[in-house]
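Ticket #319: bound-state structure for NAP.
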Amino acid sequence: MQTRTLGTQGLTTSAIGYGSMGISMAYGTSDAHGDVAISAAFDAGITHFDTAELYGWGENEEILGKAVAPFRDEVVIATKFGFTPDFGFNSRPDHIRQVVKNSLRFLGTDRIDVLYQHRVDPTVPIEDVAGTVKELIDAGDVKYFGLSEAGADTIRRAHEVHPVSVLQTEYSLFERDVEQLFPLLHDLGIGLVSYSPLGRGFLTGTVKPAGQYDEHDMRNTDPRWQPGNFEKNLAATEQLQHLAESLGVTVGQLALAWVLAQDDHIVPIPGSRDPRRVAENAAAAGLALTSALLEQITRILPSGGFGARYTAENMPVWQ
Ligand SMILES: NC(=O)c1ccc[n+]([C@@H]2O[C@H](COP(=O)([O-])OP(=O)(O)OC[C@H]3O[C@@H](n4cnc5c(N)ncnc54)[C@H](OP(=O)(O)O)[C@@H]3O)[C@@H](O)[C@H]2O)c1
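RESOLUTION: The complex was predicted; output attached.
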């Protein structure tokens, strides 16, 4: 698989990464074995694996750490701190140090390649957060600094204390807001990790209306799945599907190739618990879209999907 650089501090990974959140949260329960999907990702050329404390309070990191152990030195592990179990925020320096200790133990590794602040904590100055991450980098526990769902001011201030290598936020044909930050990311030399690049699965065409998912599946309340939005998003996905079929690829592959085509310093991290889907997603790295095709795609979805990306109470506030 092709590689991409993220930031100017030396972080290089496969052009498509793997997000492990769905193994233990967000999309309902499953009999699938996360470790099998992770091994399939590595076999398909993926060297970038994303997890977080939040995704299971150790469980998700443990699954990922065990699965990548046979090839640990060939991959990049990214994890995140900053949530509390009741979805509040905590980025106090002592807490960050403790979470990193825990994550290293759960992951069974001696270093975290990318450490993200998962959400900006309005009660802790970002300079204190960046300073703490810098200490952890100087100590060798962490290699690169990342921010998730941060706005321009936070990115600039953090970057002054320690260079930020990567911003992670939702980015897909359904979600384009982060494009307003592209000039800043270019100026500062910061890469972008695009999360939910398949629109939480909508852009694969395998969706059901809200209410028909497992009771623990967040898509039951996702605005894009609610009546009114769901039908419009489905109609757009069907049009994309026709286009994908004419190219001999899947609509999910088309959606991932579209993300990759927006900039050379973007790495999407689709998640799947199914090894065959993981391989399908990875293969999208080899799909180059002409500017005519990119235009056709953008005509179908000129400014993203219908409906907000989170419910109002969970919507991240960029600051
Ligand atoms: N920083 C943050 O705040 C944040 C927030 C959300 C996510 N993330 C990260 O981003 C990663 C990816 O995002 P995501 O998991 O939310 O969304 P996603 O990758 O856009 O979509 C995942 C969903 O799509 C399905 N899927 C994946 N590939 C498929 C395929 N080829 N065909 C059909 N269905 C397919 C998966 O189901 P199956 O598992 O059943 O295949 C799953 O339900 C996460 O795992 C996490 O690491 C970060």
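RESOLUTION NOTES: The first helix runs from residue 21 to 24.
TICKET STATUS: resolved
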